Amino acid sequence: MPACCIIPPYILRSIVLRGDERQRSAAWATLTDSEQIRGERRILTVLAPLAGTATGTRRRTIYDARRGYSLPGRLVRGEGDPKTRDTGVNEAYDGSGATYDFFYRVYGRKSIDNRGFRLDATVHYGVRYDNAFWNGRQMVYGDGDGRVFRRFTIALDIIGHELAHGVTQYEANLEYRGQPGALNESFSDVFGSLVKQYRRRQTVGEADWLIGEGLFMPGIRAKGLRSMSNPGSAYDDPLLGRDPQPGHMRDYVETYDDSGGVHINSGIPNRAFYLLAARLGGFAWEKAGRIWYLALCDKLSTHAKFADAMNLTVRTAGELYGRNSREQKATREAWAEVGC
Amino acid sequence: MRIMFERTGGFAGLKLKASFEADSLPPREARRLHKLLHDSRFFELPLRLESPASRPDHFLYRVTVEKENCVHSVLASEDAIPGGLRPLLDWLTAAALRLP
Lengths: 340, 100
Hints:
The structure holds two protein chains of two kinds.
Chain A: H1 9-18, H2 21-37, H3 44-51, E1 60-64, E2 74-78, H4 87-107, E3 119-123, E4 132-134, E5 139-141, H5 156-170, H6 178-200, E6 210-211, E7 226-227, E8 236-237, E9 241-242, H7 257-265, H8 267-280, H9 288-299, H10 306-321, H11 326-337
Parallel strand pairs in A: 1-3, 3-5
Antiparallel strand pairs in A: 1-2, 4-5, 6-7, 8-9
Helix pairs in contact in A: 1-2, 4-5, 4-6, 5-6, 6-7, 6-8, 8-11, 9-10, 10-11
Chain B: E1 2-9, E2 16-21, H1 27-39, E3 48-49, E4 59-67, E5 70-77, H2 86-96
Parallel strand pairs in B: 3-5
Antiparallel strand pairs in B: 1-2, 1-4, 4-5
């Protein structure tokens, strides 16, 4: 561990704010590393007694930013506390619990870092704020502008999506740009959708494969924000325009915006996952989800592109279900169908 | 004075873009905009306010102001926005969405 990690994070934050460019860059790198370090297996024995918790125990803490931008905000509901009168608070609490339960019961994963990481979430962030994000430490949800978007805690798959960014951060740590960034987004959509399907006990055929269903205000012509089964079909509205997601490599979008189109090109691996799940049938989290989860944890690395994801999920399917098994063939076919 | 505003990224990945001519705004709104620019010390802000690595689902804002033959443009990512700039970004976002 570099010696700089001894500097307390608040000092580093102060450097980020006040130092010269070189200092700022170093301090940022250290802060980011410190956050990564919690996921490193090699220091588990050192940190576990300090930061850990009983295995399989949920530790949810919900905060209220009261329409401001300071994080985390005022504590409004801790683990085991009764429901509040605030729907957003309860949705964030229940959604974090459902996501925790999904990863623990299906894949045996103990929270974001697999060591009982506390699930912190802030609601009512900002003024009519149209977003939800994972900031490396916690989830953050806006109330929506009330014209196009409703509150971002409304859809369970959004909560699952944000927490899955945390899982990715501690595992493959996919760089958030270009193809690795689109894979990062896609893994969040995949597990966000699986959290919802698991909660509803839906089979591949019963699931809607939509991300953000219910997020839009009435009158907006949208089924959701993204469709995993048919990318590009989620919305077509005068105000929003048309869903730009491709579902095939021939339509891959080269752009500088959105970190190189991470929310656009994620449609391609999203559809590959859906096609695999559809080929295998049953509950998508059981086989397709397991292949994706193990590839994310044990195989993929920071700069992975779509071709790497294809190769490594095919290899994972072979390891789990046998070479040339039905599952491995289906994985290969699913990627081929999206042009990889 | 002309202001161009762009917000990209975010969970939805939708781009929000708008430009405003201060002279064509209702006088009250124009005064408000001038005050927000002044309070944020916009022309003293660095060109880029961002963390080195992009972070999941974060917004990226670009604000460009043309005023009396002077142009200043600031790119700011969600986790690097100074508190003083927030009210200006909130105003521009609401105006771009045409919120009441």
